[in-house]
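Question: I have long wanted to understand how a fold can be written as tokens. Here is the record:
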Amino acid sequence: MTAELVRGQNHPLPHTRLEIRVTAGAPVMPCATLADAQGTVGGAEWIVHPGSPSLPGIEVSRQAAAALRFHVDPDALPPRVHLVRVLLALPEGIGGPDRFGATAAPFAAVTSTEGAEVASFTLTGLDSETAVVALELYRRQGAWKVRAVGQGYAGGLAELFGDQGLPQARAFAAGIQEAVARHLASAVQTPLPGATDGGRRRSEGLPLASAAGPATPSQSTPGTVPSAGPPASGPPSSAGPQSGAGGAVNYTHPGRRTSTPPTPPPAAVPAQPGRPPRPVAGDATGWSMDERLYNQVWGMFEDLARTTAAYRSAMDFAESRLDQELDRVLSDPRHRIGGAGDAAREAARAKHDQLAGQAREVLDRDLAQLVAESEVVEPALPPAYARWDNPVWHAYRVPMEIPMALRLGDVHLPERPDLRIPMLVRLPLERGLWVDSGRSGSEAALMMDDAQLRGLAMDTAVAHAARLLAAYPPGEFTVHVIDPAGSGARSLAPLTSSGVLDRPPAAGAGGVATVLATLTQRVDLVQMAVRGGAAESLPPGLDTAEQLLIVNDFPHGFDDRAVTQLRYLADEGPAVGVHLLMVADREDASGYGPVLDPLWRTLLRVTPVPDDHLADPWVGHAWTYEPPAVPPGSRVLLQVLEQVASARRAWRR
């Protein structure tokens, strides 16, 4: 499965020769620079371009074109080379676009020698730039990775080469432009609208869809439904076609900035006359089956929200009409004598029952269709989207790329409690999680004693952590645990016994201080590196993987400094890959007063028992949340974690 990268994201590369395919809406020049471990380009002899198209381990196309190929053999690169920058530039003096913002966004795909696409990146957001660093291939601890860069330069190749420290950058760039201009007229054909490359049909100037819709929980109140749909959180906007400027239809995913239309969905199964079409798993739009199922789940969420809202509105109308007609009966003196009043009341109730029956009939029809769709979709979900009792987990293999989203449980409405919609959140996480171990007011929580509820909350946190570990490739996700009093030892057993933790859970005030100081320092270093554009200058021993901190029994073991650090991680951590998973009762932390209120608002609250706390501002529903329970007696969670641990050990060798 292809990893669709966003700016700044990286992905591991296979140990094979690679091909980088570039498509653009206008002719572009291919170049590449080689650099050492410090990112320094040794000189003009370390640059490949159409006038000098090959060096040991790398070759570029010999001309400017709208479809280009770079060939890279990492094993054949000189030992001094630790970094390969893939560059694109617009040719000068040919009458073409004078900036990248005037043409369709370039698209780069990294493929293996077998033709399997490893990663892709759409260079969006370009405007006045005429040269851009598209990708970086870099060596880290003996392995090669690709990073999506997308850094543009309005001054063209001259400014780009100068930024990389190349002497006489302007003269060298002018020489490349002159060599390309001599051959461009006979070598390049203007691409036709809708031309294809590598099986992906390019669109010409289609406007990007926006995730227009209601407020999202990442930007609104902590009680709103988190998004798994096209917005990052909250009730989803439509994932289907959207009309753009000039009447063009845009089939791109609203949450992805790309100008390439997605893979067509599978054909629907023909329906019998007079019946709705039979559901098909993956019949939404999307690049892959993963994304199509993702969008289909959110289409089901939308349909359930809408049909339930329509039913409730119809029932409110029927009740209001009944009340109005009964008031008229009572206010009419003629209905106070004889049977006229009784007849009028019976007629009003008959109209009410007719309206209610019609509303229920429509609701039952729509719910039956959604149930049928759920029965088809649920078995087809990949592990990241599947329940723990889905057989797909028994065939689990550690992935090579991060999935689009992760299942945090299910949501349902009282009109059909057995119709449960997967609650998906986008990866990487945009906000931390809070597993509420207190008595939230739900009937299920009130039936448990405190110790039982706290233990179940920790079990739920471990299940969430296991899913996150299982969703990431080896070396891309690290879990830390703070358990000051050791009360979570039983629940943490799957994590500790499987070997997925790099170090045992931190205990006592000293352990709390050590872990928080380590993660706080990591956030500071990565923030400074990103802001300074010096990501390669991070300390060699710094773990650049996504980090998850599980905190049990908060605020036990936390002093004022530790609380401040925790709030800092909650606020600043997600932007640089540090996430919190808190297991806490808000009442236990009430001694700190309102100082911790921003912390709770920052986190997405989930519960260890069913609870209807998820408010939906889109249609006003209160969705009931169901946590992701592991079947009693099942070893599936431990088996998955053991596979993750084994893959991590193999990756570190």
Observations:
- The chain has a mean pLDDT of 81.
- The longest strand covers residues 18-35.
- The CA atoms of residues 1 and 306 lie 33 Å apart.
- Residues 289-331 form the longest helix (43 residues).
